[in-house]
Amino acid sequence: MKKYILSLTVLSLFYTKSNACAWSDPDYEYFNLFTQSIIKDKSYLPFLHSYSTRFYDQYKSGMIPDENIESWKKFFNNQLSYSETDYLVHKISLNDLNDLKKGNPNNQLLKKLGTGFYQKYKEGIDYLIEAKYLEPYMRINFVENENSFYYNGSSNEKNATNLDYSKTMAALTSLYNAARNPEIKQRYGYQIVRFNHYTRNYDAATQAFKTFVQPVKLKGAPYFMALDQLAGAQRGLEMNSDANWNFFQVFMNSKSRKESAFVSMKLSDTVSFNNIMKRAGTNEEKNMAYFLLGYEDFNNPIPIMEKMFEIDPNSEILKVMAVRSINELERSYLPIYYYSDNNNSTVQKITSDKAPSEKTVIKEEKLSIWQKIVRFFKNLFGGSKSDKNKEDNKADQSDDELLENPNRIPVFTKNNYWYDEKTKDYLDDLEKFTNKTKEKSKDEYWQIADAYLKFLKKDYKGSTEILEDIETSNPEYLEQIKRMKVLNDIVSQPKIDAEYEDHLMKDYAEYFVEKEVKKDSTNTEEYDYYGSVPSTADFLKDVLANRYFLQGEDGKSFLMSNKLSDLQYNPNSSLVKSVEDFYRKPNKTQFEQQIIAKNMDDVGNIEAFFATIYGDRAMRTADFEKAKSYYQKAQNFAGIPRENYETYNPQTGKYEKLVYNGTNYDGFNNIPDYIFGHNVWESFGSPDEQSMKAENYAAFPFITPKMNKLQLADALIQLKKAGNGKDEKSAKANQLIGNLLYNTSILGYYREVFVMDVDNSNGGKYDFWQTEQKNPYQYYYKNFLDRSFIEPDNFDLTINYYKKALSLSTNKEEKARILFQMASAEQGKYYQYEAKNQADIDYSDPQWSEKTDAHQKQLDQIKNQKYRTYFTLLKNQYGDTQTAKGLMGSCSYFGYFMK
Q: Is the pTM above the cut of 0.85?
């Protein structure tokens, strides 16, 4: 049963349209290098490419003009600006208009227009007064039936049925007949059609359109507003084909109503667009119908685009189809995360001038859904850096290829999330189409698109040549051309040296120097749940981070997208050393100073910060003398930098902000002597006096109740010296060293002490997943905090000290305790082995359960044969000791073993 429940969970994760992860937003997962919104006709903005929302909504409010406002602006002889007209039509109150009519305007805009404004535009103002009176009621009433399944809103909400039908119709008809201006007359006709539609008098609505709207012989904004209402009434009459055709006409001819008309078409007829194609008569109608067909079925729009090209290569909607295709490709080739196989050892560039070489192509193995889940959550960024040294990496650099190659391109389509081998062919076909269209069309857009496709194909020289030849005055086109020239320049650069960094600051500083954002206190939508949308600047920073990584400059690569303080979460020493080398580098370039070094954020004393990390690593490798030398330099350590970190206080039952008060552990000070003791039960959340028991330290007065790391290292040096003897004191000294190494390992109560953590609560640092990897970061250190990596524990060091203690001790009870500690450390070695030998069984395999059980049985057999040495010795030779009997009661797995 468990397996089937998992299957449902898996399907919900991986086969949604939006993304593999419900909390993820796919529109934040690529760099937006090609600006979709540069199309000239902004009324098509909602139909640009988006996965986060039904329609593209990343355009600014007001970019799509409302033809109704434009019509009113013209009616008022352009005496008002667009925004003033919009205010007059949509926002000004009914009372303000009545005051104007009475010759006593109080509204500031109406005062500015003067009392003569009403006399000049009397019919228009009178219409607006009537329209504003009706507006609160202009919605259809909700009628509940057996199919109703959603909340219908407030029962007190006004709707059209709240008006007296006969009186309202009489008033509107009278106003219609009295109107002399044809446009105003038609607007009254629109109100009559709308009123009947919203009162569900559908037949009357269709007749009203014929009686009051069509005879006016105008086809401006009021006509299509009325046609929209007619189509709604026809849908109410189940005249779906006619309704759909009229919605289609609204879609074609309206600027601001395309989105709603499209939705209405979808609601009207499940085979709507095919029916529209049958009725399309003019080339314009056919072209629009093809667009809707291509928009709905976007898996391969090129055949549809070919048909649209034959009709009109200058069509604006053809550009919309093209930009959607380009956006699809961009998401495939340039995602913000790069996935790779953990066993791959080839370090690659994010870009390259060369075609993919046979040597470096990564083939996507067939993964079970379960394996994909594990990979997604455990291996977010992919494989390890090359096992070769950095000189070898440099030597292989010429063979590097685009990080995502044709055999391994993640495609975000409607039907799949993972990989599609056809994407490269799609790019080739789209390039051919674009190249053909730019020869026929007069719009420079197609030249820009062609240049961008060449950029995706890594033909940077060809891309730049096209861009240089484009002549345009369109400001959006000019901005896109400028950005693409920068992309071609930086991405094609094989090595980033000081000279090139100077070039970056001289010519492209705007892409790297962060502008200060002034916060608007009135902005209620300032908080961004997902963080900022990836941009061109983000992409370029990734390219540079990748270059530095390939060049062996890991510190610079890390600081391109991380803060110095982030090292506390994954303090692996080789990376820390590279960051420190950059910190100490003399004569930094302007780029290094202003762009990279700015991420050297406040960690208190930087020297002490580095020294503490190095000292901690030396302690974990039992090099206590080296640790002491580092800790001597770290005495000014300011505390592990955790802003707004909260810790649970069992005494108050509340989470409280972590404050270093001089008595608690801060990463350097206030380490209790329990660190040399042993645990009486395994409970990381209990206070140390409950989980831990101190040993007898009488022979070692340098072990004090509270120590700092320098004192701790010094104590270990003295214990190590004492352990060289042949007596019980020597045995105890070695046992205490073994205890400390075990207690500060991944299994110990004080596991946080030498990994730059503030407490032992669970987290990424405390797992065995990365034990076989020298470095899990393959391309750069972007999203450093999203995966964990710390050099694994060496449990043999712990066991070796225990072995010395065991050989020197003559006390049988002490020997039992030492053997149990050795067995616990050996358990750590097994966990490391198990993490490296996970079952590779396809979850869809019919024998998944049997094979999984067999694999677990094999692991158990290996555990008992190779990793139970000291448990066996304890059971066979010391099972009668009080220590062993006590351990059977406090340690469940030991008690199970002893049975």
A: no
In a 3-state reduction of DSSP, which class is residue 410? Answer: strand
Residue 487, Cα to own-chain centre: how many angstroms?
23
Nearest to 672 by CA among 690, 689, 658, 651: 689
Q: Find the radius of gyration of the CA atoms of the chain.
A: 36
- Nearest C-alpha neighbor of 700 from the set 721, 714, 715: 715
H-type helices in 809-868, by residue range? Answer: 812-836, 848-866
Helix, strand, or coil (residue 104): coil
Count Cβ atoms below 10 Å from residue 523 Cβ, excluding itself: 8
**Residue 325 near residue 405, CB atoms below 8 Å:** no
Q: Read off the DSSP letter of residue 90.
A: I
Separation of alpha carbons 14 and 515, rounded Å: 38
- The C-alpha atoms of residue 332 and residue 417 are separated, in whole angstroms, by 10
Helices (H) and strands (E) in the chain, counts: 39, 6
347, 395 Cβ separation under 8 angstroms = no
For residue 864, CA distances in Å to 512, 747, 838, 867, 871 come to 57, 19, 18, 6, 10
Q: Do residues 746 and 766 make contact, with C-beta atoms less than 8 angstroms apart?
A: yes
Query: Positive or negative CA dihedral for 550, 554, 560, 561?
Result: positive
Closest CA to 31 of 555, 490, 517, 340: 490
Instruction: Kindly report the three-state secondary structure assignment for every residue of 296-335.
Output: HCCCCCHHHHHHHHHHCCCCHHHHHHHHHHHHHHHHHHCE
Query: What six digits make up the tokens of 629?
Result: 């030398």
Helix (H, G, I), strand (E, B) or coil at 899: coil
Nearest 10 degrees: Cα torsion 581, 584, 586, 592: 70
- Residue whose entry in the numeric block shows the structure tokens 């069992």: 650
> Which DSSP symbol is given to 516?
P
Pair 781, 545: CB distance under 8 Å: yes
Mean pLDDT for each 10-residue chunk of the chain (899 residues)?
A: 32 31 58 86 88 73 85 94 94 92 90 89 94 91 51 64 93 95 96 95 96 95 96 92 92 91 74 77 92 80 92 94 90 69 48 35 33 36 34 33 29 32 79 94 95 92 95 94 93 92 94 70 38 76 90 94 93 92 96 94 95 97 98 96 84 87 94 95 88 94 97 98 96 97 96 94 79 69 82 94 96 93 94 89 90 93 92 88 77 57
Task: Give yes or no for a contact between 845 and 851, defined as CB atoms under 8 angstroms apart.
Answer: yes
Structural element, H or E, at residue 290: helix 283-296
In our burial notation (b when 16+ CB lie closer than 10 A, e otherwise), range 750-786 reads: bbbbbbbbbbbeeeebbebbbbbbebbbbbbbbebee
